[in-house]
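Ticket closed. Logging final result for Winged helix DNA-binding domain-containing protein.
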Amino acid sequence: MVRIGVEERRTRLGRRHRLGAGCQAGDAVEAAASMAALHASDPATVHLSVAARVPGSDVASTERALYEDRSLIRMLGMRRTVFVVPTLFAPVVQAACTDDIAVKQRKLLVKHLAESGIADGTESCGQWLAAVEESTATALALRGSATAQELSADEPRLRTRLNMAVGKAYAAQPYVTSRVLFQLAAEGRIVRGRPLGTWLSGQHQWSPAEDWLPGGLGDKPSAEEARVTLARAWLASFGPGTTADLQWWAGWTLGQTRKALTAVEAVEVDLDGQVGYVLPGDEAPEVPVDPWVAFLPGLDPTPMGWKEREWFLGPHKSKLFDNTGNIGPSIWSDGRIIGAWGQPESGEVRYQLLEDVGADTTALVDAEAARWTTWLTGVRVTPRFRSPLEKQLSQG
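Final structure:
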């Protein structure tokens, strides 16, 4: 079994994630394709992840790919998380991950409707939900695009309240609106369009999938074929990785993960005592990368690509991750995390290194901090999921 050590893994990361000097992507679509998908739970992440990988990119160019060219699309994907993916890759993600999520979430929503007394019995709740979905889809088709609030005006049943966690300290009565729209999106019937407000906004216009893209998401492969394709894409970007890494990233069962690895004919390699996998023919060392530094946003796809992160994270987890496993803004050098960054109210990019990296690397960090301060002129980004160190750096 070929051994692939930590240094080789870090070299691969720098080149394949488009972070190393001379390895950057040419545009937002290429940046997304190189990562299989860009995290989009926090809307700022998409733009910052692209800017970290595409020299000279700006918000306008990424928005053009998303909303005018529509060569990128925002959709629900792996682990029930929102991602931005190349539009041509969307049918793969839909079939490999999102279709299963839609089935599970429909059952859960029907259960919550029944518990909330919306209709008499599970079957009746399912019929109620189907009727509201069809009415909402029709209202959206008539409008062409609409906000959740506008659709609620057209279909008043969207303002029905659920009774969640009755009797608990965290009990709540949310409107069913977001759950219905989530379901329609998970089934590929509607898509998220332009945000309301700036690129930092998490609220979006909705559009029918067929209006947004000719033919909607297009022809889907079978679920099994799609999982093989997605596993191949993950290995191309994140390999070598373990079975546990891929299972966590994709949100699959262990059986689905093993079957996909077998179908792609993944090759076993030794990750310093652990069994990892690479694509066939990908065992040879990567071409070396010149020294590099990168400032990555919270939830960037690079640190969120593996379940087991010690080889690039070191002892810094408690300062860089929140309590639910979301990473904040991080600073990288040659394939490993060396610090974090944040923005105080004054707007400049402030950073803290977590280890001594020497004068040359510190100079690169200073230059990147200055570049990001310029890139973010007039904008202060507050991550949706905040790490302890980012909070500290953003004070004042």
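The CA atoms of residues 26 and 54 lie 6 Å apart. No further action required.
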